[in-house]
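Handoff note, outgoing to incoming analyst
You'll be picking up this chain. Sequence as last confirmed:
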Amino acid sequence: MTTQTQTPQTQTPVEKTGARTDEAATLIGDARERIDALDDRIIGLIQERMAVSAVIQEARISSGGRRVNLAREMEVLGHYRDALGKPGTALAMTMLELCRGRI
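Most recent structure output, in case you need it:
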């Protein structure tokens, strides 16, 4: 007995989504497309934030200041925590890490 493994291109919508009905598979497929579009927007916004952060860091360093303002970072962490709960803090830490030291 041979078992064929289907590639993602040959899977049916039900197989791709793990749904048990065509209706649920369609709903999941549509929602995943929306999530992918949202992820693209989020990535774009983070890239924009990184560019703005680089401008701030350059201005701070050229004026004799430090690259990182820890008090400001604590404000950002608090904002994310307040809006998203504990996982928001981890998300903010990752974002801050991405935005540091690109100069």
